[in-house]
Amino acid sequence: MRYTLGKTTRILLLSYLSLLTLAAFFYGGGNYVEKQTPYYNFFKNFISDLGRTTSHSGDDNSISIILFSIGMFVQLVAVLIYLVKAADFFTSEYPKISLLAKLSAVFGSISLLGCSFNTS
């Protein structure tokens, strides 16, 4: 049971990275400076470009936005699980700080969810 926290988080974060990689593969193309680039450029595009309804080149970005949204939700779940379970390690010695850490994890995850919805 002790090592399931790291294993679960690792699986979820690898799923997040895989979904973002797939979303980049299906991205319509273009970036803020060069509108006609036919692909997602890791160094010139923002990650949030994957969550746009229309790519910078004007192409439909439906597949990419679906994969990006699922990936962001998976990341949200991974961060929430990890932070809440990590706070459990301090419950016996510092119960008030542990509760504060759990509440902060929940509010931080809600904020992360808001950021992922605000990309289009």
What does this structure look like?
The model has no long low-confidence stretch (mean pLDDT 86). By secondary structure, the protein is mainly α. It is elongated. Helix content is 60%, strand content 0%. It has one domain.
Q: Compute the separation of the termini in Å.
A: 40 Å
- Rg calculated over all Cα atoms: 18 Å
Number of strands: 0
Q: Could you name the ranges where pLDDT drops below 50 across 5 or more consecutive residues?
A: none
Helix/strand class: mainly alpha
- What string gives the helices and strands in order? HHH
**Separate helix tally:** 3
Helical percentage: 55-70%
Number of domains: 1
Descriptive keywords:
single chain, 120 residues, mainly alpha, 60% helix, 0% strand
